[in-house]
Design goal:
51% helix, 282 residues, globular, Helicase, Ruva Protein, domain 3, seven-stranded mixed sheet
């Protein structure tokens, strides 16, 4: 997905939000915004938002001196999600379609996104998503391909959300490689975050090698790119991964997300707030 003009003020908002979590020094924050303004001037609209996000969070780390501003918020999100885990597993077990309920729960977890908004109620979100109609619902295609595949590449999005991913991974009952970011960006899931969520108990954890808040293939390591290229079924969670992979021509990818901003919604041709199970290259 390309960058839209409306992404530009969002870049500034994200940088200021992360900067304020890292430091209260207004001189550093002013420098951060000044340098991002100069940087954005030269970034083409043809680049994807995660490519720009990678540069922004490099600046946040450089100027504030804080490597992972969202570390404590990520840990708190994971603890909250783990507390909900038994009740969510019970919802899956009691449902008429366990796989679909697990998909809905995984999408509900996508609301844990500090890049877009810190104000959310995860319990309310679960109740809404369990009842909400999908705007795009490629479920039959997904089930058919899941039956045929012997391994799934699952690209994670946010810390805390990964606990909800774990429920879907357990329900799919297939070997899974779970992909995390190499370096912290916003509250995106890293190896450490995935371990805290218990992903190591249900999947093999793999770093994509990127520090972008999304999957930008050009910035990923060789191991990930080889596995990605040879995958028969890829699950891509969240907006950042959609932004990075939506124009890819291979392999088969299913995007699981909630459209949390109107720019993403417009690009997918849905409404803001809609939930999506969208397959490409199928």
């Amino acid at each position: 997905m390309r960058t839209y003009l409306d992404c530009i003020p969002c870049f500034f908002n994200q940088a200021l939000r992360a900067g304020r979590i890292a430091t209260g020094d207004e001189t550093k924050l002013k420098k951060l915004l000044d340098e991002i303004g100069l940087m954005l001037r030269d970034i083409p609209l043809e680049s994807s938002p995660p490519e720009t996000g990678m540069l922004i969070y490099e600046k946040v780390r450089e100027i504030t001196g804080v490597f992972d501003p969202y570390k404590e918020l990520k840990r708190a999100s994971t603890e909250k999600a783990l507390a909900l885990y038994p009740a969510l597993k019970n919802k899956v077990e009691k449902s008429n379609d366990k796989l679909l309920t697990a998909i809905r729960i995984a999408i509900a977890g996508n609301v844990i996104d500090f890049g877009v908004n810190r104000n959310f109620n995860i319990e309310e979100e679960i109740d809404i998503v369990l009842k909400k109609d999908f705007a795009i619902f490629d479920y039959d295609k997904f089930k058919a391909l899941l039956d045929k595949t012997d391994e799934i590449l699952y690209i994670g999005d946010n810390a805390g959300e990964s606990v909800f991913d774990r429920i879907l991974i357990e329900e799919m009952k297939k070997p899974v490689i779970y992909v995390v970011r190499a370096i912290p960006a916003i509250n995106d899931v890293t190896y450490e975050d995935a371990i805290e969520a218990g992903i190591d108990k249900v999947a093999t954890i793999l770093s994509s090698g990127t520090s972008a808040p999304g999957t930008v293939l050009e910035t990923c390591n060789a191991e990930f790119k080889k596995i990605y290229k040879n995958s028969k079924l890829v699950i891509s969670k969240g907006q950042g991964n959609y932004e990075g992979l939506s124009d890819e021509k291979q392999p088969i990818i299913f995007f699981l997300l909630k459209a949390k901003c109107w720019v993403i919604a417009n690009d997918i041709d849905v409404n803001e707030g809609d939930i999506i199970l969208k397959g490409i290259n199928t």
